Amino acid sequence: MAALLKTRKLQVKRAHKALFEPLDWHVQTGQFWLLAGANGCGKSTLLETVAGLHADFTGDLELAGRPLKHWRSRGRARQVSYLPQSQEATPPCSVAEALHMGSYAWGSQASEQWQQIVIQALGLSAWLHRPLAHLSGGQRRAVELATSLIQDSPLLLLDEPLGQFDMAFRLRVLEFLRQQSHKAIIMASHDLVLTPEYATHGLLIFADSHTRQGKIADMMKPDQLMALLDWPHTETLNRLWESRRL
Amino acid sequence: MLRLGLIFVVLVMLVPAALLWGGDGFSHPTVLWTSNTNHTTAAIIWQLRWPRVVTAVNVGALLAVAGVVVQNLFKNPLADPYILGVSSGAALSYLLASALGLTVPVMLASLAGAALALFALLVLSWRYLRHIERVLLNGVMLSFGFSALISIILVLSKQTLTQSLLFWLMGDLSHSPLRWWPLALVILVVLGLGRGWRELDVLARGNRFAEKTGVSVAALNLTLLFTAAVLVAAAVSLSGPIGFVGLMVPHISRQLVGFSHRYLLPAVAMNGAIVVLLADTLARSMAAPVQLPAGAITALLGVVFFMLLQRRKSGWQHF
Predict the structure, then answer these.
(1) Residues in chain A within 8 Å Cβ distance of B75
(2) Are strands A211-215 and A155-159 parallel, antiparallel or unpaired?
(3) C-alpha torsion angle, residues B109, B113, B116, B119 (rounded to 10)
(4) Can you tell me the distance from the alpha carbon of B122 to that of B240, in angstroms, rounded to the nearest whole number?
């Protein structure tokens, strides 16, 4: 079976400067990748690149066995959906209209049933007829996440999806994501407490532009994370770490 | 759908009202169907007012649809079709022809100017179709440049010519020959863009959102840019640059039929027609025999409208 995402010697660049060392990476159906690293290490740019929105890279990048450049917009959107860190504009549309946009790439083949499942799972039913602009920041983020899910692609890229949510809602989202075993999920996150409990694999990008990948249990080793995040050694940090609250 | 029907009814009722109302007050409606063409009132109605009513409908619809297209293209509620620079290009071309004493028809001169301005905009913006702010900046820049040249021409022209040119620059429907092609153009655009209403809705969320959702943004933006330019060029060639319609009517229409372009496009075309028809009828009847420029009336209506709009809190929000 072809990997959903396959990179060979992929180097993502910003202003012509490579963000990390050449990356060989395979992502398969059923995997849930946690993408971790300090601010500015290139997590978001990597996701943008895979989503087809950032063209400044070298090396090979294949979606479902086909080079990224050979995909046209609509076909690519059926293959990969992407939740960016922030949204551009909020036009005067209703929540229902905004959610419906997620299924654009499928045209008349869009599944109404799947849309209802997502709406139920994230508890959005009550807001459907409210203007998008009247929601709170966290609520709007939930609508954006749902829109990406409604796009119903086998590969799901989520950039910091949980940051604005309360703990209950984070758990609700993670539980729902875990059920999507027919998809592959790549989530960039600074959350190293809850998300590792759900992820199956980890890709770490270190400050010195090294990367490391593997099973999540092997990635979440304390010394490795300390090096990854360049944490200062303080007493509070050690205490939190000992008690597994961090 | 019901609201679209209501808007259509208002438009249809406004046409005979505009035909009957003139500087001498209201004529009796029977004039409209008496076949006595020697009748002076009938002659005024059918030879002077009828072409003017049709032109007002055409210009209003053209500008309003252009407004919706441009606001969607730039994701900006304050975008006006004139920021493309196409209209000032058209105006400059016409003024230049008049000032040089060339006897070129207004329509030809302004269409040529609009085409040149669009060409300049496309050349400047070709590489940035996915980064639409650059296109906007280029349009504003061109617009300022053309306006500066227009001012210079106005100052250098003879006084009588200056006055007539100024009148035209405010938007003038008084020399309107009867033309049906602009209406055909509007219907074509509304149907053509209307088929892709979902694409247009998605684009309103932002270029990157649209691209990731599956829209070919560069191709769509180019189509929209070109469509808006053609609509504006047609409108300016008919009546000179009438202000505020392209800005105001999309807002009114969103309040009436909502955000989706499925209903917004036809609504905006009809509302544009209503606003310009109303403004021009007021302009020629209110202070008769003095004829006010229709553009001044639409601008006044626009100012009142925006003051009211500020009291309501809805519309586009940016991050």
Answers:
(1) 88-89, 91
(2) unpaired
(3) -120
(4) 23
Query: Can you tell me the distance from the alpha carbon of A239 to that of B180, in angstroms, rounded to the nearest whole number?
Result: 80
CATH 1.10.3470.10 for the B2-311 domain, yes or no? yes
* % of chain A exceeding 90 in pLDDT: 71
Instruction: Tell me what the pLDDT averaged over chain B comes to.
Output: 87
Measure in Å the smallest separation between the Cα of A79 and chain B Cα atoms: 10
Task: Give the pLDDT score at A31.
Answer: 95
Q: Residue A113's domain is classified under what CATH number? A: 3.40.50.300
CA distance B124 to B135: 8
- Percentage of chain B modeled with pLDDT above 70: 95
Length of chain A: 246
DSSP string covering B8-58: HHHHHHHHHHHHHEETTEEPPGGGGT---TTSHHHHIIIIIIHHHHHHHHH
Give the residue on B whose Cα is nearest the Cα of A108.
Answer: B198
Q: Examine the pLDDT at B18 and tell me if it is beyond 70.
A: yes
- CB contact under 8 Å between A53 and B315, yes or no, is no
B317 near A CB under 8 A = yes
Cβ density class A74-89: b for 16+ within 10 Å, e for less: bebbbbbbbbbeebbb
Would you call A89 and B217 a contact, using CB atoms and an 8 Å cutoff? no
Structural domain boundaries enclosing A96: 5-242
> Cβ atoms within 10 A of the Cβ of B194, count?
15
B81 to chain A, minimum CA–CA distance in Å?
A: 19
- A84·B212 Cβ contact <8 A: yes
Contact A93 B315 (CB under 8 A): no
Query: A90 touching B, CB under 8 A?
Result: yes
Say whether residue B209 is in contact with chain A using an 8 A CB cutoff: yes
Confidence of residue A66 (pLDDT cuts 50, 70, 90): very high
Q: Please, which residues have CB within 8 angstroms of residue B76's CB and are 6 or more apart in sequence? A: B136, B316
Question: Do the Cβ atoms of B319 and A101 come within 8 Å?
Answer: no
Q: What is the ipTM, given to two decimal places?
A: 0.91
How many separate domains does chain A show? Answer: 1
Tens digits of residue pLDDT in B160-198: 888 888 888 888 888 788 889 999 999 999 999 999 999
Q: Are B274 and B60 in contact (CB under 8 A)?
A: yes
Q: Quote the pTM value.
A: 0.89
Of residues B199, B212, B315, nearest to A53 (C-beta): B212
User: In this structure, is the dihedral angle defined by the CA atoms of residues B56, B57, B62 and B63, taken in order, positive or negative?
Assistant: positive
pLDDT at B135 > cutoff 70: yes
Mean pLDDT of B41-62: 90
| Chain B hits for A151, Cβ within 8 Å | 213
At residue B47's C-alpha, the angle toward residues B46 and B48, to 5°, is: 100
Q: Is some CB atom of chain B closer than 8 A to the CB atom of A130?
A: no
Q: Residue ranges per domain, chain B? A: 2-311
